[in-house]
């Protein structure tokens, strides 16, 4: 089989397993495919390798193996950078930010989230932008900068609406509710939290449809 096609099929298989919650199965498929692909190849093969490495990284993170996740995610990022793939650079920077923040590396997480915002804007990926802005706002909140967190979440909310993502929209409304509650704006907080519950319910119904 052509390497690019082989890589694409492996990405689809590993991604399907991960989406079903089978992180170990996704790891096995992705690693076996990577072992069959050498460092050479055309653009489609290189991008396939990058996506397989990305899948290895996020699967390891989902298992709590965050130190192990850093290397494949960084390798994926370097391949995407070499190909000038802005869209996927945004996704990997966001995932590296998540890993770094959960490891307590807040300064590095901040850098990754900001780069994720930049690349998702450039790559015209509103869902990725909403996710990156939401994560960045959560980090600002953790650092105690509540005003910046609120402004960033408001921007994330707009991106989530543009993406048509009920789940991301719900996350943003929930976080805005938490911030409003912390500020003593209890009526505003209740409005955000009620909206979040409704959005999560709609997202569940859509997933079952």
Write up what this structure looks like.
It is a single chain. It is built from ten helices and no strands. By secondary structure, it is mostly helical. Helix 1 packs parallel to helix 3 (43-62), helix 3 packs antiparallel against helix 4 and helix 7 (126-142) runs parallel beside helix 9. The longest helix is centred in the last third of the chain and has 23 residues, at 186-208. The relative contact order is 0.07.
- What is the succession of H and E elements? HHHHHHHHHH
Low-confidence stretches: none
Distance between the termini: 36 Å
Average pLDDT score: 92
Shape, principal axes of CA atoms: globular
Largest sheet: none
Rg:
18 Å
Content-based structural category: mainly alpha
User: What is the number of beta strands?
Assistant: 0
Write a brief caption for the model.
By secondary structure, this protein is an all-alpha fold. The chain has helices spanning 3-19, 23-36, 43-62, 66-83, 86-102, 106-122, 126-142, 146-163, 166-182, 186-208.
Give keywords.
mainly alpha
SSE blueprint:
Elements: H1 3-19, H2 23-36, H3 43-62, H4 66-83, H5 86-102, H6 106-122, H7 126-142, H8 146-163, H9 166-182, H10 186-208
């Amino acid at each position: 089989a052509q390497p690019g096609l082989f890589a694409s099929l492996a990405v689809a298989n590993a991604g399907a397993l991960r989406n079903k919650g089978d992180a170990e199965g996704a790891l096995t498929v992705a690693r076996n495919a990577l072992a069959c692909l050498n460092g050479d190849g055309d653009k489609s093969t290189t991008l396939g390798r990058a996506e397989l490495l990305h899948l290895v990284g996020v699967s390891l993170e989902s298992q709590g193996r965050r130190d192990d996740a850093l290397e494949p995610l960084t390798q994926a990022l370097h391949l995407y950078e070499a190909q000038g793939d802005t869209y996927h650079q945004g996704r990997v920077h966001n995932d590296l930010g998540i890993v770094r923040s959960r490891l307590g590396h807040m300064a590095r997480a901040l850098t990754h989230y900001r780069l994720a915002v930049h690349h998702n804007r450039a790559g015209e990926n509103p869902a990725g932008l909403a996710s990156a802005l939401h994560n960045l706002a959560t980090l600002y909140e953790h650092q105690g900068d509540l005003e910046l967190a609120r402004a960033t979440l408001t921007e994330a909310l707009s991106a989530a609406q543009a993406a048509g993502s009920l789940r991301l929209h719900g996350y943003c409304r929930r976080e805005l509710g938490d911030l409003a509650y912390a500020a003593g704006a209890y009526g505003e907080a209740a409005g955000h939290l009620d909206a979040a519950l409704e959005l999560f319910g709609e997202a569940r119904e859509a997933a079952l449809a």
